[in-house]
Write a structure and sequence with these properties.
The complex is a heterodimer. By secondary structure, chain A is an alpha+beta fold. In chain A, 34% of the residues lie in helices and 15% in strands. Chain A has two domains: 77 residues, Ubiquitin-like (UB roll) (Roll), CATH 3.10.20; 72 residues, Orthogonal Bundle (DNA polymerase, domain 1), CATH 1.10.150.120. By secondary structure, chain B is an alpha+beta fold. Chain B folds into three domains: 197 residues, Aldehyde Oxidoreductase, domain 3; 327 residues, Aldehyde oxidase/xanthine dehydrogenase, molybdopterin binding domain (Aldehyde Oxidoreductase, domain 4), CATH 3.30.365; 147 residues, Aldehyde oxidase/xanthine dehydrogenase, molybdopterin binding domain (Aldehyde Oxidoreductase, domain 4, 2-Layer Sandwich). Chain B contains 20 helices and 28 strands. In chain B, the strands form seven sheets. Chain B has a seven-stranded mixed sheet with strand order 3-5-1-12-9-10-11. In chain B, a hairpin with a 5-residue loop joins strand 13 and strand 14. Chain B is globular. Chains A and B meet through helix 2, helix 3, helix 4 and helix 5 of A and helix 1 and helix 18 of B. Bound molecules: FE2/S2 (inorganic) cluster (2 copies). One FE2/S2 (inorganic) cluster sits at the interface of chains A and B.
């Protein structure tokens, strides 16, 4: 057993875990935060994307012990109660999701994309930056649109630097 | 109208939970005390199992129990079934080998199920699985269809000599031959429809639970049709009678056909829950999904088209071999037969068609319906043939198609289908305009200046959706009826619950079904709840596939709403002291014709329940109705997609520069959702054409069993799509809906391949047209171009 302390969506918890526990397992099974999904477990699909110390990382191939002491944000931590994050709102407004399985990872990647690339994102940049996220439902058309307008809205709301 | 009715671009009601991470998928379901199942899968494509030693595995930490096929047999758990009987052209029934959920003495594909380990944690189950010792006697596999039918080839199932499941035919062979005898020109083509892996992003999963107090089982599973799953698990596999088996398909993360079928894993989980006295959970990892989800497509076809001197199509002959894999999956047998050959007429008036299809067993994963199911394969054949014929006859591909379009409806094709409505010219005209086809020459020249090859490709597809009239499919061999059910429960306060047998796994039913209710009852969609996916709540239904939820599921809902309206008018009549015949219902208000007496919907609902204004002999209290809708015909969505590609001959990279889609889906409930369905379908079709392909090596190992080896379409592989619509209402259902779920996947592959072959100037290139394949083709082009 190994002891791990993480701050997840603002709450700090310490747990004794099997050292081979992946971060995604820690979130889903120990914290019951099931919004982070597993689509491939080989770092290819991005369904498991969360923010670790502010950066988007794939939690399916990251040991929980490797991020001991980190601050984690999952999809459940993005909205403030009923108040959606601008990127979440944009996904709904522009129909950027169908089955919703890739969506938490898409949104977490998109928020990180804005942090790195700014709030004025053209389609080409968005498509290239989505290289690590697979969606089987939407054909990406509306995801690209949602991220474009979500980024713009983040700029207006001043959430880009968060 | 409340602004949320039919035709409104309403944002989806289901989205809030998905964008906040509160969706409830099967892997998010955890039952108290659950154990975890892991399946030991065959590493060989074909082998006899000599012995299985479990002792070392049983000693591993955390192991609860381990089961093999013998345990299932001892409990009289039946094998998995195929629910559609196909007869060969000699009248003999298809030759279906047994399909045990856990192998019995033999394994037939890599990934076949040998044993299940149940342990406290998934990691412990995996560790224990490593300790199972299986002694295999490896047999030679047959991997390709050509190998499978070769004389002396190893046989997978004794009941199917030469590995042939059926030799099926459709159409009038003599009439087709006669058409060819008079032809001025014959176009011939060999066509391969590549094998695909569906790859819904949510892997399959199951949680089985057993209550020893009630004797009832509950199965949470990733299903597109939980009632069908219950029916099969109950009536054929023998888990429990239907009233003791509850199947719940909660949020499901995409299906595309692959979650229609009843698989080994959920069967074993629900059965094992009673054996071990604990809930049993299984979640596939992605490699398991590649190995054991039913694959799609995989046809080899030779097609010939007879034409007169003007380019009018006289006849079509098609011979197809369809790979069915190692076992017949739930609906596999009908996909390359009745969902395929009846669509070979395309949008064209073809007097004579004859098709033969051989269904073949191979040592590969079972093949079944994948988005479009048979119809993409048919469309690929006819649309490649038409394009090549036009080129051979030096005619413009659009004009060539127009010359042959069906123009009078209803139109009976020579292959079963009777097209009820359509206007193929209208879609073509609109698509040509949107695609700026008249300037394609200039764009080709501009590309050529940059050293690039530009090509344009058409696909004028048709599909048969709204599956399906029960008696009609019954006469073709279906084991079930394909109607749909709906129940409308109006609450005393006027809010409404809809229970539908359709299932949503991305299609947005919680919104579109609510829009229909909003339109009809004049209430906000916020006052409507859509309940689906739970056999204990919803009466028998048939589920979602074949673009049927709008045309069939919503038609059932519409019929139930008719009944609600009739009953509510009676209630209103009592309240307003008028005859129900004099009551009008409009915009959510009941009024007495010619007076100002009126009452709103919510008040009528309350009156129906308090029952003070009428007595029980005159009218039953309450406001709840249900309906079953059995379609009168298939529906026939059709359209024209135009793809424009630019190829770099130096690298072989194909870039899709423009995509124009014009579809006729009949009436549309929510254009935003329909466009989304089109986008997603096109992406899967482009994936098939440019990127995807399941590859088995000579030993039957699946080489493409992860996202590192199987190329999924990603955002930067795809363009944005220009989507337009034309509309002819569908006369075969009360809402005039045709269905939109599969169109993109059906239309896209031939559009891409027609564009690539247009750019390269020759026809021989197979899907997926990877950069290597295109580069090679471009190399062959170079000397020819130089010689010209
Ligand atoms: S689950 Fe982590 S990248 Fe696919
Ligand atoms: S919405 Fe289904 S995978 Fe993206």
């Amino acid at each position: 057993m190994a002891s791990v302390t993480l701050t997840v969506n603002g709450k700090t918890i310490t747990r004794d875990i099997d050292p081979r526990t992946l971060l995604v397992e820690f979130l889903r099974e120990h914290m019951r935060l099931t919004g982070t999904h597993v689509g491939c477990d080989t770092t290819q699909c991005g369904c498991c994307t969360v923010h670790v110390d502010g950066k988007a990382l794939k939690s399916c191939t990251l040991l929980a012990v490797a991020v001991d002491g980190s601050t984690i944000m999952t999809i459940e931590g993005l909205a403030k109660g009923e108040d959606l994050h601008p990127m979440q709102a944009a996904f709904r407004e522009y129909h950027g999701l169908q089955c919703g399985f890739c969506t938490p990872g898409m949104i977490m990647s998109a928020v990180d994309m804005v942090r790195r690339k700014g709030t004025d994102l053209d389609d080409k940049t968005i498509r290239e930056e989505l290289e690590g996220n697979i969606c089987r439902c939407t054909g990406y058309h509306n995801i690209v649109k949602a991220i474009h307008y979500g980024a713009e809205a983040m700029g207006k709301a001043g959430t880009a630097a968060e | 109208m409340s602004g949320t009715g039919i035709g409104a671009r309403v944002q989806r009601k289901e989205d809030f939970r998905f964008i906040t991470g509160k969706g409830q998928y099967t892997d998010d379901v955890n039952c108290y005390g659950q154990a975890h199942a892991v399946f030991l899968r065959s590493p060989h494509a074909h082998a006899d199992i000599v012995s299985i030693k479990l002792d070392a595995a049983r000693d591993m930490a955390g192991v609860v129990d381990i089961f093999t096929g013998d345990d299932l047999a001892a409990d009289k758990i039946g094998g998995l079934i195929c629910g559609w009987m196909i007869h060969s052209k000699d009248g003999s029934p298809m030759k279906a080998g047994a399909h045990p959920a856990l192998a019995q003495g033999k394994v037939r594909y890599v990934g076949d199920h040998v044993a299940v380990v149940i342990a406290e944690t998934q990691a412990q189950a995996r560790d224990a699985m490593e300790k199972i010792e299986v002694d295999y006697k490896v047999l030679s596999p047959v991997v390709s269809m050509a190998d499978a039918v070769r004389a002396g080839a190893p046989v997978l199932h004794d009941v199917a000599p030469h590995n042939i499941v059926y030799n099926w035919s459709l159409g009038d062979e003599a009439a087709a031959d006669a058409a060819f005898a008079t032809a001025a020109h014959v176009t011939k083509l060999d066509i391969i429809n590549n094998r695909l892996v569906p790859n819904a992003m949510e892997p399959r999963a199951a949680v089985g639970d057993y209550n020893s107090g009630s004797g009832g089982f509950t199965l949470y599973t990733t299903s597109q049709n939980p009632h069908v799953a219950r029916l099969v698990l109950s009536a054929f596999i023998g888990i429990a009678p239907e009233h003791k088996l509850r199947v719940i398909a909660p949020d499901v993360g995409g299906g595309f056909g692959s979650k229609i079928f009843i698989y080994a894993e959920e069967t074993v989980c629900v059965w094992a829950a009673k054996k071990v006295g604990r809930p049993v959970k299984w979640v596939a990892d992605r490699t398991e999904a590649f190995l054991s989800d039913a694959h799609g497509r995989d046809h080899v076809t030779h097609a010939e088209m007879a034409l007169d001197a003007s380019g009018k199509i006289l006849g079509l002959r098609v011979k197809t071999r369809a790979n069915l894999g190692a076992y017949l999956s739930t609906f596999s047998s009908c996909v390359p037969t009745y969902l395929y050959a009846p669509l070979l007429s395309g949008q064209y008036d073809i007097p004579a068609i004859y098709a033969e299809v051989d269904g073949i067993y191979t040592n590969t994963a079972p093949v079944d319906a994948y988005r479009g199911a048979g119809r993409p394969e048919a469309t690929f054949v006819i649309e490649r043939m038409v394009e090549v014929a036009a080129r051979e006859m030096k005619q413009d591909p659009a004009e060539f198609r127009r010359r042959n379009f069906v123009r009078n409806f209803p139109h009976q094709t020579p292959v079963i289908m009777c097209y009820d409505a359509g206007d193929y010219d209208a879609s073509m005209t609109k698509a040509l305009e949107m695609a700026d086809y008249k300037n394609i020459g200039a764009r080709k020249a501009a590309s050529a200046k940059k050293g690039l090859l530009r090509g344009v490709g058409f696909s004028a597809y048709i599909e048969a959706c709204g599956i399906a009239p029960s008696a009609a499919v019954g006469s073709l061999g279906a084991g079930v009826g394909l109607w749909e059910s709906a129940e409308v429960r109006v609450n005393p306060v006027g809010t409404v619950e809809i229970l539908t047998g359709s299932h949503s796994h991305g299609q947005g039913h919680e919104t579109t079904f609510a829009q229909l209710v909003s339109e009809r009852l004049g209430i906000s969609i916020d006052n409507v709840a859509i309940i689906h996916g739970d056999t204990d709540k919803v009466q028998m239904g048939m589920g979602t596939y074949g673009s049927r939820s709008g045309a069939v599921g919503m038609s059932a809902l519409s019929k139930a709403l008719d009944k609600i309206e009739t009953k509510a008018k009676k209630v209103a009549g009592f309240v307003l002291e008028a005859s129900p015949d004099d009551i009008e219902f409009k915009d959510g208000k009941f009024s007495v014709r010619g007076t100002d007496k009126e009452i709103d919907f919510a008040s009528v609902a309350l009156q129906a329940y308090i029952a003070h204004k009428f007595n029980g002999q005159e009218l039953e209290p309450g406001l709840k109705e249900s309906a079953f809708w059995d379609p009168t015909n298939f529906t026939f969505p059709a359209g024209v997609h135009i793809c424009e590609v630019e190829i770099d001959p130096a690298t072989g990279v194909t870039r899709i520069d423009r995509w124009t889609a014009v579809d006729d889906f009949g009436n549309v409930i929510n254009p935003m959702i329909v466009e989304g369905q089109v986008h997603g379908g096109i992406a899967q079709g482009v994936g098939q054409a440019l990127l995807e392909g399941a590859v088995y090596d000579a030993n039957g190992q699946l080489v493409t069993a992860s996202y590192m080896d199987y190329a999924m379409p990603r955002a930067d592989d795809l363009p944005s799509y220009d989507v337009g619509m034309t509309q002819t209402a569908c006369p075969s259902n009360p809402l005039g809906i045709k269905g939109c779920g599969e169109a993109g996947a059906i239309a896209a592959p031939p559009a891409v391949m027609n564009a690539i072959t247009d750019a390269l100037g020759h026809e021989e290139i197979a899907m997926p047209a990877t950069p290597l394949a295109v580069w090679r083709a471009a190399q062959r082009l170079a000397p020819r171009a130089a010689a010209e």
